[in-house]
Amino acid sequence: MQTHTVRTRRSAESFPREEHLAWKIAEVAADPVAVPDDTAEMVINRIIDNASVAAASVTRRPVANARAQALAHPYGPGATVFGVPGRFSPEWAAWANGTAVRELDFHDTFLAAEYSHPGDNIPPILAAAQHRGSTGADLIRGLATGYEIQIDLVRAICLHEHKIDHVAHLGPSAAAGIGTLLGLPTDTVYQAVGQALHTTTATRQSRKGEISSWKAYAPSFAGKMAVESVDRAMRGEGAPSPIWEGEDGVIAWLLGGPEAVYEVPLPGAGEAKRAILDSYTKEHSAEYQSQAPIDLARRMRERVGDLEQIEKIVLHTSHHTHYVIGTGSNDPQKFDPHASRETLDHSVMYIFAVALQDGGWHHERSYAPERAQRPDTVELWNKISTAEDPEWTRRYHSTDPDEKAFGARAEITLKNGAIIVDELAVADAHPLGARPFAREQYIEKFRILADGVIEKAEQDRFLDSAQRTPSLGAGELDQLTFTVSDEVLARTPKLNPGLF
């Protein structure tokens, strides 16, 4: 890996385009280096993973609305939309599929200086690939780039510190991935990356306070913008530049300011793109920092015994967990039994209480209003708080994969004064966890979430096609979707009419 120093530059300063971070990213995208076998295998796993969570969310209102918008834009050749037959304009397919993938917050993750769901790259890159008649090998190359760029940006540039939403790293990565997919020249990818970043910087209010459906829409909007940015760049249109380093650019006014310096790692020329191997998926449908606490609660349940005897629970954890999904956020909504699913998903206090009571987690039942409003749950929930522990924060930011951790130490104080303590550094499904996910677990997750949604024959067809992605020929990528019956679609809540 090569480390690039990135900082604000004055307009009068000599700063050749070839030194811009967007150009360096474009060079990585344009590099014809081969994709390693283990990277390609993990790409297949994540294609399956995305379809799993899309199946589980296909009848939810935000997903149905996004799908309805896409269906208003039929197009040829076009791209597919989860759940329905037909082909649609690729940017709208990316929008609909990106929303389906993100709605339940249940797909892969990478956490470092910033946080991300790099699987958000798949919908826009796949939509562009289907529209252009690309091969499976082309798709894998594009996805390897999308993952690489997003993860490398996440390693180096913190957005949330400045209240900028993490999809600001997704627009550029998806644009770069589409550039690799289509074999575009460096200059074209450079312009697309700049446009994608410029149009996808927004505040983090979408993940603060009363969290709405925009939490799912934000990454799908970034994917849609990436597709449109590539289209404009291919037509010869340019972007604000230098987009990161400019005197009035992203670093100067949205991030660390004119004096800030970032060290961004990117693969060198001829170096394979392997970043996807550093990411990890979710066993539970909850914010990633809740994965280990869910497993910890499941493990501690028998030791505690009668939960009525709990006096208080303190989760000692990282800065991020405490301030974003813990009591450090000072969000009263995180203790509201009538809060939205999106808000409950960002309350580790609620999640730990339910996991402790139920001994596990379910993507629907654990968020049901009647579950959140249960009196004994509300009572336990309000006994839980979080506290930042410098050691957990250090491990969260560690660059050593064997030391990096997203867990917590739980101290449960009983009414008789006894204290039960346990800790878990990584989730059971993490590569270093008790039960790491491999192909078998990705397929099992798909089967569980597709049950009652996708007919068995269609499940089998999709899984067969996904596992043959490297050998799919031009025009065959439409196999990487699924359809559901009219009876399943009829479960969708009644939708309000829109503009289209």
TrEMBL record:
<dbReference type="GO" id="GO:0003994">
    <property type="term" value="F:aconitate hydratase activity"/>
</dbReference>
<feature type="domain" description="MmgE/PrpD C-terminal">
    <location>
        <begin position="284"/>
        <end position="464"/>
    </location>
</feature>
<dbReference type="InterPro" id="IPR005656">
    <property type="entry name" value="MmgE_PrpD"/>
</dbReference>
<keyword id="KW-0456">Lyase</keyword>
<dbReference type="InterPro" id="IPR042183">
    <property type="entry name" value="MmgE/PrpD_sf_1"/>
</dbReference>
<dbReference type="GO" id="GO:0019541">
    <property type="term" value="P:propionate metabolic process"/>
</dbReference>
<dbReference type="GO" id="GO:0047547">
    <property type="term" value="F:2-methylcitrate dehydratase activity"/>
</dbReference>
<dbReference type="GO" id="GO:0006099">
    <property type="term" value="P:tricarboxylic acid cycle"/>
</dbReference>
<comment type="subunit">
    <text>Monomer.</text>
</comment>
<dbReference type="Pfam" id="PF03972">
    <property type="entry name" value="MmgE_PrpD_N"/>
</dbReference>
<dbReference type="InterPro" id="IPR053420">
    <property type="entry name" value="2-Methylcitrate_Dehydratase"/>
</dbReference>
<dbReference type="InterPro" id="IPR036148">
    <property type="entry name" value="MmgE/PrpD_sf"/>
</dbReference>
<comment type="similarity">
    <text>Belongs to the PrpD family.</text>
</comment>
<dbReference type="InterPro" id="IPR045336">
    <property type="entry name" value="MmgE_PrpD_N"/>
</dbReference>
<comment type="pathway">
    <text>Carbohydrate metabolism; tricarboxylic acid cycle; isocitrate from oxaloacetate: step 1/2.</text>
</comment>
<protein>
    <recommendedName>
        <fullName>Aconitate hydratase</fullName>
        <ecNumber>4.2.1.3</ecNumber>
        <ecNumber>4.2.1.79</ecNumber>
    </recommendedName>
</protein>
<dbReference type="Pfam" id="PF19305">
    <property type="entry name" value="MmgE_PrpD_C"/>
</dbReference>
<comment type="pathway">
    <text>Organic acid metabolism; propanoate degradation.</text>
</comment>
<dbReference type="InterPro" id="IPR042188">
    <property type="entry name" value="MmgE/PrpD_sf_2"/>
</dbReference>
<keyword id="KW-0816">Tricarboxylic acid cycle</keyword>
<feature type="domain" description="MmgE/PrpD N-terminal">
    <location>
        <begin position="19"/>
        <end position="260"/>
    </location>
</feature>
<dbReference type="InterPro" id="IPR045337">
    <property type="entry name" value="MmgE_PrpD_C"/>
</dbReference>
